Amino acid sequence: MEKEKILITGASGTVGSQVLDQLVAKNQYAITVFDVNSAKAEKRFAPYSDKIEIIYGDIRNKADVAKATKGRKKIIHLAAIIPPLADEKPELAQAVNVHGTKNILETMDKDAFFLYSSSISVYGDRIETPYITIEDPLLPSPHDEYAVTKIATEKLIRESNLNWTIFRLAAIMGYGNHKISALMFHMPLNTPMEVCTPEDTARAFVNGIEHQEELLHKTFNLGGGKQNRILYKDFLQRSFDAYGLGSVDVFPDHSFAEKNFHCGYYADGDKLENIVHFRKETLDTYFAKVRAGISPIKRFFASLFKGIVKRVLLKKSEPYEAYKKQDAALMVRFFK
């Protein structure tokens, strides 16, 4: 019996890699991956070269996209320009995230099932109202270009005459594969977070393709659940502890923004869990894996030079620079 054809975009990314691993392990589908040709993608796909079809191309090019979508009856669309690059290059984010998705919608088979990865960022700053439901208004924080592209793309999907489902992903945390960037300081320390691991997130997509009837034409909040809720300061402290970096409290006042980020708790997140049963990880298992991935030598030197490390990190803090320079425009953005 011929296997059903499935397409994954962004399969070399944090979540996409896990989706690929899980789908290959199931051995139920004829898998095609569509990605930009890069050393990272080639290395990621190499172990599966005899098990998957690899199509390299540019999602902004409709002809490239058409080659990937033709005949695929299930599409998991994860490819996107994410922060901080999305905020630094909003035109690129628009071209890839919005128009790239439009290319998929216009070239995919009309009876295919399309699963889309959106983001909690569409809800904007929820420090004062941390509990989020799918009915809440979409109010992206100022300068959050990524959220703007996600809202625009969701609109395109809903207006299409296709079979679609949208998952709005909470804070997705991998194990040591997130590069330190200025965004670390954009998030207020009292931000409520609901963490979900790449494995659990991928499982929601992989299991979701078998539940088209229950998911069809609906949007769901995808998060790790009550057991994975934490304040950003506590999450950051546990991360610092894992690396041997000491206390977060040593950063000076105004190092972290006080408003205009995103994240929160998904009050209705169990709705998706009850359908696709994707949650296996907890904050404890997450940090256990983080610790396991840090060599004793790396932890020793991080601990030894933690003061230097923190000074290097502080140089990335845009809120702190804005405060030092008394930049009124940026201070309004970052501080109450």
From TrEMBL:
Taxonomy, superkingdom: Bacteria
* Protein name per UniProt: Nucleoside-diphosphate-sugar epimerase
Its signal peptide is none
A molecular function (GO) held by this record is: L-threonine 3-dehydrogenase activity
Q: Name one GO biological process term.
A: L-threonine catabolic process
| Listed Pfam families | Epimerase (PF01370)
Where's the NAD-dependent epimerase/dehydratase domain?
6-205
Alphabetical list of InterPro entries matching this protein:
Epimerase_deHydtase, NAD(P)-bd_dom_sf, NAD(P)_epim/dehydratase
Q: Which SUPFAM superfamilies match?
A: NAD(P)-binding Rossmann-fold domains (SSF51735)
Family according to the record: Belongs to the NAD(P)-dependent epimerase/dehydratase family.
